[in-house]
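Consider the following assembly input.
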Amino acid sequence: MLLPHSTLKDATPDTVRKAIRAGQYTGHTAGLCPGRLQVNLVILPEILALDFMRFCQRNARACPLVGVSDTGAPHIDALGDFDLRTDLPTYNLYRNGVLADSPNDISTLWGDDLVAFALGCSFTFESALQAAGIALWHIQNDSTVPMFRSSIQARPAGPFAGPIVVSMRAIPSARLDDTRAISARFPHAHGAPVHVGDPAQIGIADLTRPDWGDPAPVPPDHVPVFWACGVTPQAAIAAVRPPYCITHKPGHMLITDIPDLAEALDILDLPSRHPSQQERLT
Amino acid sequence: MLLPHSTLKDATPDTVRKAIRAGQYTGHTAGLCPGRLQVNLVILPEILALDFMRFCQRNARACPLVGVSDTGAPHIDALGDFDLRTDLPTYNLYRNGVLADSPNDISTLWGDDLVAFALGCSFTFESALQAAGIALWHIQNDSTVPMFRSSIQARPAGPFAGPIVVSMRAIPSARLDDTRAISARFPHAHGAPVHVGDPAQIGIADLTRPDWGDPAPVPPDHVPVFWACGVTPQAAIAAVRPPYCITHKPGHMLITDIPDLAEALDILDLPSRHPSQQERLT
């Protein structure tokens, strides 16, 4: 029996992941476990892992790496107590760069040669913007944020290359400085905008025709603001056509145990035995 | 003919590196090219690179990775126009974990299977603390900052493991908040302290007997403040005893072209063609 999103709304990460693991929830994770970091997942064969990790390091705003598994290990200890094979609601399996399946469990697909990468996502800074009273049209209208291939090229690494993909949110002119400052506090969630204003300056000809997602208006007294987007690594991977790649299904994230705060940057790299981390977490 | 440190004091990174490349300067780089990021260098065989990169990602405060070379390529484009084989004043060559030589040029030692890692160093936040009027005893007394093996264990990655090594600086109690806030602005340079106050809480029995560097006093109205230290990865590597490893000689850093600012975090991952980066750099 599937549980509705509303039943899980106030549940802990552990409870939500157990429901997902039991096959009781397969939907999107937006709004679940507020205050906890949710992350994109990319799983690749180890032979591509060093180059992909270099790609993330070199393009940190588009690919903010918050955790990496050991080869063959379906967990990332620094981020929480989860099993990467069962604890996401829905996965996408790509073979040779083409979507082959969207399973709810990848236990039978997991292998000893796989490396999992957890990448920060825009949920984090979107929550912070909304908390500061900055409305986001795509959320209010239950649509997907518009995303565009920009003319900014990612720094390549091995076979991984391509344009920086950006997402666009229309922000009231009066709140531009706040928007910059708030999103800059979350380097693990794409950080500050990469561009503010004229879309043509970053190679976007027509704001009404996004490459991914749905169009969104730019009302009077609003300015289009562009952030580096997690589709950047996905597009770079698709172009490489690896024999095998598993990701989260968009919107169906991994819910971690760590706080969704700017300070997560500091918490991430300290082992849990460290007293000052415990203080900060409680 | 060797140039004195004072001759290069106001030179550009390019001029200093050219002098180093020509064999005209082999000394330490402290105080050279103020405002430019200086970094630690670690060069390892590719077979260890993925695990070492995971070690850095998992222990980012001790091992703040700011750049990684392609395998066999002696440069890191995002950080500047330099040759890693010739542009550091002095290197350390380790064979099986033991210091074998301290050459001024590693052209004949470079190989197609090597990967170079650039790690942020404490010069950055030390300059910022001093600029804010917070004096640092070890600098005023021309000694090396005291460093200690702490009881905080690094998160392991493959063969890389061990304690987080910390450096200690005595800070006036009245400036503790400033010190925390200023160093937190530099996540690429070890960031905020990992511990403030009682050394016993992180397993340090005797502040007067550092494991590396020179002892430094904690005067009245001062508090010992501990930062994660770049010796952490060096100690982890030494314990692995790789057949081959090259590092900078301590204090003899790689001088990059990028600014030594908090905003470097943002600049790092954007390609140089991006107009807003140009604005920020000029």
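The CA atoms of residues 52 and 79 of chain A lie 20 Å apart. Ask yourself how this observation constrains the way the partners meet.
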